[in-house]
Amino acid sequence: MNVRRRLISGSAFAAATALGLGALTGCSGGASATGNTDKLDVVASFYPMAFLANEIGGSHVHVTTLTTPGQEPHDLEISPQQIAGLQDSDAVLYLKGLQPSVDKAVAESPVKTKIDAATLTTLEEHGTEVGGHAAEHAEGGHDEKESGKDPHIWLDPVRYAQVAQGVGRAFEKADPKHKAAYAKNTDALVKRLDELNTQYKDGLAHTRSKVFITTHAAFGYLAERYGLTEEAISGLDPESEPSAARVKDLQKLAKADGVTTVFYETLVSDKTARTIAGDGRLKTDVLDPLEGITKKSRGQDYFAVQEANLKALQKALGAK
Predict the structure, then answer these.
(1) Residue 279: predicted pLDDT
(2) Strand 113-116 vs strand 91-94: parallel, antiparallel, or unpaired?
(3) pLDDT tens for residues 151-161?
(4) At residue 112, what are phi and psi to the nearest 5 degrees?
(5) Please, are residues 138 and 248 in contact by the beta-carbon 8 Å criterion?
(6) What is the DSSP string of 134-179?
(7) Per mean pLDDT, which range of 9-18, 212-221, 286-295 is the poorest?
(8) Contact 17, 81 (CB under 8 A)
(9) Which residues lie below 8 Å from residue 266, measured CB to CB, with a gap of 6+?
(10) Is the model's pLDDT at 217 over the cut of 60?
(11) Adjacent-strand bridge partners of 61
(12) pTM here?
């Protein structure tokens, strides 16, 4: 994945050190430090992984997350104290390819149970292509592409359910004493995800348009699942800058395909999205990639935000 790999600055490092294990934000209550409870201590890399751990683990796990609420997970740089907390945990649940600093820390950690969500389902290449759908409406044709293995699997309820099943099996193996509880919780979560999939399938089956524009290429799996086309301003990295050619192509595409709305998200700047929308006299709305829950989120958990995303897509695409 084309994410920025920056060295953490001196001031940022100092701040991270001062935060210490407090940066391992508790998601299920209890102590902020890991490895000191009588439960299965699980470190999750960011919100979608923490949500799975809590839903599947229930009262038998203590979950902490490396990414604080409101922090853009692609930019995470782990502090030495967080690394120490990771090493004291019983299990780590992460998504390889999304956060390079997490990948490195997990690889060097002695944690016995390492659960990589990317290995529990299939990953595909998505990104921004000019020369594909957008270039059909462009003059001259530019050959630009920023793509790679797309890690945003949690936005597809079917793939997320596959990951949930894999996490359940891993928890059962790591903590066989509570195997039955993990199996029951996994089944319940998968059922809810199946129902969400049906909601999306039925809700987006008949729409006036099939094309939507987003801030970054987070919704490739979702679009593919429900017969839509995502056109992203940026690529897989939410803060990569789009070229002038890309912006021009998006404006032409919006007009040609009857796009009404440019979607932005809660954790990154909406400046470019609003500029494109303003120039094309389009509306703006939120389509949340669910990388973290904040006060700005349209819901307090995964399912609530996904339902809000569905309503936003139905409105923008003219669902019938």
Answers:
(1) 80
(2) parallel
(3) 999 999 999 99
(4) -70, -45
(5) yes
(6) GGGGSSS---EEEEEE---GGGSHHHHHHHHHHHHHHHHHH-GGGH
(7) 9-18
(8) yes
(9) 286, 288, 294, 296, 297
(10) yes
(11) 40
(12) 0.82
